[in-house]
User: Fold this.
Amino acid sequence: MTRPPYRRKQYWNEPEMGWYERAYLFEILRGLAITGGVFLRNMGKWMTGRKGALTTYYPEETRADYAAGNRGKHVLTQRPDGSPQCVACNMCATVCPAKVIEIDAAFDPDDPAHPKYPSRFEIDYSRCVFCGLCVEACPEDAIRMVKEVPNLPSLDRHGMWLGKDELLTWHPLSDVAKPYPGAPARDKSRGPA
Amino acid sequence: MPEIFINGQAVQADDNQTVMQAALAHGFFIPYFCWHPHLSVHGNCRICTVEVEGDGGGWLDIACNMPVAKGMRILTDSDKVRARRKQTMQFITLNHPVDCGICDKAGECTLQDYHVAYNGSPSTSRDPKVQSTKFFPLSQRIILDNERCILCTRCVRFTREVSKSNALGVRNRGDHSLIRPTEDRSFDADEYSDNVIDLCPVGALLSRRFHYKARVWYLKPTPSVCPGCERGCSIDLWHRRPEWKLSALDARQNNRIDRVTPRENPAVNGPWMCNKGRDLAATFERARADQPLLKGRPVDSTAAIANARQLIGDARHPVALVSSWGSNEELASFKQALGGRFECFVKADVAAAPGETLADAILIRPDKNPNTAGARALFGAAPPRFAADTDLVLVWGEGTNFGDLPPRAKVIFLNAWLQPENGHADVFFPISVQTERAGHYTNFEGVESAFAPCFAKADTVADAEALFAALAVGPESGA
Assistant:
């Protein structure tokens, strides 16, 4: 059985090329000139300290225009006295499909209303799938996801764990759910944080 | 043998059974809080209410305290019963704080399970809940959360009927009732006090040792045998499930015995165990030896085995001190491989600690080694003694003072723990412990119980069973 010879399909918008286009080389050079022009313009701006392309230079630069509902990084909310709202019930760690949350619980006999608190709270961003189930599972509104993305780049996977110190740095000016403690006064002698 | 009908099905009950016992024996489940198969009937929680069909539409009564009668017709799940159960659950949870998120019992809590199964709706009460003592120290080992307590009094009945310490009672009345230690007794003196933690159907009685250590669904029980005394109680060792392995937190949590609970075994310990067994983790968390040694010099295991075979082959009168912590399998392997070559004595690895209870009428036995009976069955009960021409001693297990050995004899030492004697032996082998291998112990009554491994052993650590086979000296090597 012999196949009929292959015929290229004819489209309704076939380009109509004159001899100039068919010569190929002129058009290629024109294209290279456009690309090279943009490249040189951007490089010129970059060398003189201005910003050329729309690209975000991650991780030195982060986008300011994340959507309000973006599931970026996790934060731990705080009580008015600044202690974490988390009661170390492990609901988030249990529901997490990637099993990236690890919590060490401790006993605080001095606070009868909140006897259990997390002594360590670790999230592994190398495995997190940003599904937000931890936020839904939390009975205490203690873990939320803010739109900013975590500072992911790291030289090894162990550097991609975020601990309690980092998660507790969220200090919004106000909160719809509860009165929120302000950021602690920065110790001036230590210089900028 | 009265015949009764449960949910329309004919059932043969025993004469002195209650409806609860007859139903459970035939696979009908009736919920219960205060009733316990090994304690007296108190009948205060009312959750086991069932309907008895009879004249005038029948009536509701509690199954745990109702003797069976011929031709009785019981309904365990009628509309009436369901409505009553729901009301009972509403009443029991009236002052319960519902702090399951921070409760160690959550996940294995009877109140949680029954709430889901029989109630399912939030409290209908508009009154504030009664506030009560949190974290009351009942003893050095146990704390009591009075808000969670549903006053089933299982713990009180346990101290009166099983441990006989009479150390707990109920103080005050109604909403304000509190479980408290009795004035003239100390709950600390109760050797079986930790059983009330398992007995408690809610999270009121909490172990200090386990407090906030892990949520229970992260843990898995491995059946084991308590090596604390020759009773050999069947126990569960609870350790972290492999699928919940931690990587950022302390890795020791992955290979840690988080708690010990009794495993019901009517032939040995019933449903109870003593406090010493609850502290087994401390025994197994001691520093481990993991390096074969020749007079204190680290070598690899092949060199150590070659040296030991040489010593065994050359000895004229070798003596072996056999461990009473070895499993029956290891003892049999020793008997087969080396039993003919050595004069064997069974030694006591562990002696009772100062102040430890030696024996009582419930479970605790004077010999603090788990397999003395199994070892003596193979090697006799004679106490260790060394003839004048003893030139090689094989010591298996800890607890031997090397000063008591014949001074000129060479020593082959097998031990699991990091101890100073290890370096003094001519050949030293690190061996696995009970949590790293499977086996059987025979208790003083001759009952064999099996234990399973829960952790992996280190590569450099030998299994005694395989080691003995490797040490067996054949006739060709001059034995």
Q: What stands out?
A: Residues 431 and 464 of chain B are 6 Å apart (CA to CA). The longest helix of chain B spans residues 79-92. The interface with chain A takes residues 101-102, 134-135, 211-213, 215, 217-218, 243-244, 246-250 of chain B (CB under 8 Å).
